[in-house]
Design goal:
By secondary structure, this protein is of the alpha+beta class. It has three domains: 17-140, GAF domain (Beta-Lactamase), CATH 3.30.450; 184-313, ACT domain (Alpha-Beta Plaits); 330-409, Orthogonal Bundle (Arc Repressor Mutant, subunit A), CATH 1.10.10.2840. The chain has helices spanning 17-28, 53-61, 66-74, 77-83, 127-167, 173-182, 204-217, 246-263, 282-298, 318-328, 333-345, 349-358, 363-370, 374-388, 395-412, and strands at residues 32-36, 41-44, 88-90, 101-108, 111-119, 192-197, 220-228, 231-238, 269-272. A five-stranded antiparallel sheet has the order 2-1-5-4-3. Strands 7-8-6-9 form a four-stranded antiparallel sheet, with helices on both faces. Strand 4 and strand 5 (111-119) form a beta hairpin. It is elongated and about 95 Å long. It starts with 16 loop residues before the first helix and ends with a helix.
Amino acid sequence: MYDMPHKNPFKKSFFDLKELVDSIQENLMCPATIEDNNHRLHAYSSHEDDTDSARIGTIISQRVPEKVINRLWKVGAIPNLMQSDSALRIPHIEDIGLRDRVAIAIRKNNEILGYIWVVEGPKKLDDAQLELLKDAAIAATPLMSKLHQNRKRKEENYQDFLWQLLTGQSKTLSEIQSKFHDLNLKLPDSFTVLVFHFKQEITRKMEEQISYLITTSQKITNHFLVVMEEELILIASPHSSQADDKAFDDFISFFISEMANRFSILDIKGSAGTSYQAFDNAKTSYQEALKVLKMKERFPEELKNVCHFRHLGAYRYLDLIQKEQRIRHYEHPAIGKLEKYDQSHNSNLLKTLEVFIQQDSNMNDAAKKLFVHTNTLHYRIKRISEIGGIRLNNVHEKIGIFLDLKARKMDEE
């Protein structure tokens, strides 16, 4: 045990983080870990056989388990660490296997580079030892800063490659495979492009928060990330624990919710393209994700629960229908007839028709949506069929006029 508070055993150069973490254990007589700002494990000391499950899980997966991170956010431990220069105590949390901890942020100026975590035993660290932990965090700064810079350089290299993929500049699979090899990246079995649109331009601080949330969520495996003004673009695969497209729906919902809850960043819209195996389809998946955002913006009510391209349904084809209508100057005859009737009789038959089809021709659901009695709706539907000459029991005719109505709405906007 170190017992001379005026002397700093960490005031020297350490070869690497492993040497530093062993020195922390030697001086504080407690197991220690050092992780980066995204809670990836970089060094850990030895521990007794009866150590807690949170530490074991961290060492096995080389990152702090997601359930531990989420709980530490919920109890305020991580936000407090991010705001404090001093070592803080985190009391045990039994249901996530976390015994008493003392932790401190490793920072360079105002930037968080990582954290040191110490498992306290029955004998708690005194004030002098807490000061030593602060000295250890200072000693860790140049080592973590070097890792941070190396990671940033790697990100810059692969961002160029990402844009080549998204714009279709990498034309052959052999070119793409060669580039993956050059960047020392594993070629995934499948991938999807995800796009998030923010209300404001994404700042460097927001980018750090985004990277943190993506890395710690452990819901998807992210291969590439790039920010362009208000747009965040990811190329990702499902996490091994959930190997299907539902992982992307879940992640989009989680990301939007947690960016609001943790960082007060609101009104984010998210989307995902189709999953592909060959990376020469990256441009296609990207364009599909952009189309989802475009359609959600134009039809916010109808598509409020849609985030994946495959769930767009008929909305996938509206821009093509709109283009054809413009070229041919075509409009379904029933639309003009119903619109003229509505103007003459101060009625709302055209809107009624749209809602009726939108509600899958369910009288009760459509009546609730329109705030009318079902008898009133029955009468309106009868008049719509008579005036517009529409056979609403014919699925093809019904879908056709529905698409024409939606394409018309796109022109109006």
